Structure formats: structure tokens, C-alpha cells
Amino acid sequence: MSGVRGTATALTCIVLLSACGVPAQDEPHPVTLPRRPLNGTASATTGEPAGEVAQVICLTRDDRLVETVRRSGAGLGPQRQLDLLVAGPTPAEQAQGLTTALAATVLRVTVPAGSTTAAVEISVPEEGAGRIDEAVAYGQIVCTLTARPDIAAVRFLRDGQPLQVPDGDGAVTGAPLTAADYRSRIDPP
Question: How far apart are the C-alpha atoms of 58 and 50, rounded to whole Å?
Fold first, then answer.
């Protein structure tokens, strides 16, 4: 009798442990999975077309940085990504209240071979094209480029010389900047 009782107790323990507190359901329900990396290619497991690449473009809304994702059939180079940033939001992004603080700005990016720090040459803005908040404008560039897997930091140049720019807190620096330097300005996705 004690053998049957021991077997029943063991079976009950196994059933209770295997349940893990998740009740059985008759119908499927939606599950929110963790966000996959934005800078990788899509795969069959995500249900997206093979070869689709997510590109982060950091736009603005109410003087805040907002990371948006645009998908394309192929990866974009850093210069093309900055060109899209300067061009501004798509009509769908405009409908969400997004804009850019970089309109009419000329940017040229280089990434030296073997380096993960991009150098961005920035033109002198046209007169009358002043920015309300330069930290947001520089933050757009830094957050867009450092969302790439091949760029970890960004430094700025004007006429080939190091340029002092504001970080997210308004402190001026000539050091390479990362997205973490603008964390206080970035809205959650």
C-alpha cells in the first residue's frame, strides 16, 4: 500500500511541477515576444520577408528624439542613412508628428577602416536655419548612426577640424559621442 501511495505522491508532484502555474487554454492567444535587434536581417522565424533589413532613423517630436524603423530590401550605408535623416520623415511619420532638426544640413560621414567611430563633417547651417535645440540635432545623427552594428560612436568635424557639440544634457564636448550621451532625450519606442 505504501508503494502505491509513494507512486501516487510522486506522480502528483510531477504533474504539479510540470504545470508551472500556466493554465491550459482551449484557444490560442497573442504573445508579445522580445524585440529582435533592429540592425539585423529578417528571417523565416520572424515571418518577415527574407532579406528585409531594419534601418533606424532618429527623428524628433516636441524636442525629443524618437527612433523610427524603416525597412528595406538591402542594408544602407551610413551616408545613405544620414541622407534619409536630413530628408526628414515619410508622410506616415509626419502623420505621427515626427520631424527633423536637420533640414538643409549637409552631412558627410566617413568610417576609417578598422574603426567603429564615425567622423561626421557637418556644414555651417544657412543663415536663418538656426535650430531651437542643437543637442537634439546632434542627437539625431548620433542615435541614427550608433544604431548600426558597425558604428559605436560619432565624432563631429567642421572643415576637417574637431567640432565641439552639445550632448543630451547640453554639455559641450569634442569627444566621440554615443546614444547613451543622449539617453535623457530619447523617448521610448
Answer: 25
